[in-house]
Design brief:
two-stranded parallel ribbon; DUF1178 domain-containing protein; 5 strands; 3-stranded antiparallel β-sheet; DUF1178; single chain; alpha+beta
C-alpha cells in the first residue's frame, strides 16, 4: 500500500491510499479521483515528505475506559513520548469495513440509480435522506456541476472470506 498526499483545485488536502503507484496513475488517467472534502475531480499529488515507520516490540494497547471528548473537552495532543497507532493495511481495512457498516446501517442503497436519486433529492423531488450506490465519472461530474454534495468512499469487501 502507498499513501499519497493529494490536493484538489479548491485547495483541500487529503490522503489517498493505493495498492501501488501504478494503481494511482491509472485512476488519475481515467479521471476517477475526487476530493474527499468537496468532491472535485481535479486532484493532483501534493508535495510530501517520505514516511518513516518505527517498529515496536509490543503494540500499544487501546484502553476502552477512556471517557469520550465532549465539546468543552478537547482530546489532548500526543506528547513527544506518545506514539500514534501505526497505519497498517490490516487496521486500514478494518476502518474501511467499519465505515461501510455505518453507511449500510444508516443509508439507503439505490444502486446504479445513485446519480438520478441524488439529483432528485437535491431538487426536492424526493425525500431528503442518506443514500449510497454506484455512479460513473461522468455522472459524478454532472452532480458536481449541479452543486450536489457527494462523498466517494472506497468500498471494501465485508470480510476476506
Amino acid at each position: 500500500m502507498i499513501c499519497y498526499q493529494l490536493c484538489c483545485a479548491n485547495g483541500h488536502t487529503f490522503e489517498g491510499w493505493y495498492r501501488d503507484s501504478a494503481a494511482f496513475a491509472r485512476l488519475k488517467q481515467e479521471n476517477l479521483l475526487s476530493c474527499a472534502i468537496c468532491g472535485s475531480s481535479k486532484v493532483e499529488q501534493a508535495l510530501m515528505a517520505p514516511a518513516i515507520v518505527k517498529g515496536r516490540a509490543h503494540p500499544k494497547k487501546v484502553e476502552s475506559s477512556q471517557p469520550e471528548a465532549t465539546p468543552q473537552q478537547q482530546p489532548e495532543a500526543p506528547t513527544a513520548t506518545q506514539q500514534p497507532e501505526a497505519v497498517t493495511p490490516d487496521n486500514l481495512m478494518s476502518a474501511l469495513r467499519q465505515i461501510r457498516a455505518v453507511v449500510e446501517e444508516n443509508c439507503e442503497n439505490v444502486g446504479s440509480n445513485f446519480a438520478d436519486e441524488a439529483l432528485r433529492i437535491h431538487h426536492g423531488e424526493a425525500p431528503e435522506r442518506g443514500i449510497y450506490g454506484d455512479m460513473t465519472a461522468s455522472e459524478r461530474e454532472m452532480l458536481e456541476d449541479e452543486g450536489v454534495d457527494v462523498l466517494p468512499l472506497p468500498w471494501v469487501r465485508k470480510t476476506d472470506s
